[in-house]
Amino acid sequence: MTGFDRAPRLAALRGLLDTHGLDAMLVSRAANKRYFSGFRAMDDEESSWPGTLFVTRDATCILADSRYTEQAAIEAPDWEVILTTGGMAQDLPPILSDHDVVALGMEAQIVTHAEWSGLAEAASGVELHAMDEEIAPLRLRKAPDEVDAIGRACALTDACLAHLVEWIRPGMTELEVAWELEAYFRTHGAEGQAFGSIVLAGARASMPHGVPSEARVESGNVLLIDFGCAVDGYRSDMTRTLFVGEVPGRIGLAHDAVREAQQAAFDALEIGVNGQEVDAVARNVIADAGFEPYGHGLGHGIGLETHEAPSLRQSRPYTLEAGMVFSVEPGIYLPGETGIRIEDIVVLEESGPRLLTNSPREAQVIG
To answer: Which pairs count as long-range contacts for 253-256, CB under 8 Å and 24+ apart, including other chains?
Structure first.
């Protein structure tokens, strides 16, 4: 496991205290807990009160109940672990008083309305400030150790696809393929999957985020696989659309159009470009080929979360900067017929974009 340098991260978080006139910051998002301290929340308790970080100019504390005190002490040895026995409104006010907190920053997108209002009532002398938009940019540009971790997750995803291409046979179900790829990740060192894998055969591939089922892989169409894993907390995300034997020419033309759209997007990537512009480049290639472009965005940031800033989409401007890591994933979806998507992860560097996923983007035939 990589030892990440968290000192600059903590310094940047504390910088927000001065910039916004705060006395302390409460960190509740699971990815941010891990980013700043190393404490790893369980997947089904990502936004829970236990394990919340409390940071002032001179204190770093993890507020944890008895289930997590030992774990927090091991994973974040430089942080003070404070035992909690109740909820936020019960446990936090005395801590705020001990640290003379008058203005507190919080993640309003994560803390529930009930928790926020309960704390506002229990600590009526403390001003509560939503700081989600201010904290998010701190993770936007990835440090070299973060890019390395994402790269290792991407390399494992490449290896998994190579295994699947040799392993999959017509007649298997989507669920069987999904189980196999998860087992591969688990047995080859991943913490787990980055998200629930999308494995869709034939006409079902027209659903961009469909769920694997008992539907079978059949010759004459495609198998779309969108999957990724987590390594040291950092995620990968890759999509390939495999040809199952011979497929109709229209499907092959759609695949060619998606691949060309993705390459055009790669060619348009550079520091200072707006993500909307890159999205438009890919859409235009697909439209010029005679197909309806994808309805989702061209790409999303990735790191400790599978979907994070920046975004490359029509609806939101985002100036791309060196150090950003994101997906590029154009697609064509033909309801009742098929779906095609190709997705790769890119890090934007001073010299230009560098691919972190390296599986073949040309059509691969299985079975």
So the answer is: 253/289, 254/289, 254/291, 254/332, 254/334, 254/338, 254/340, 255/222, 255/340, 255/342, 255/363, 256/289
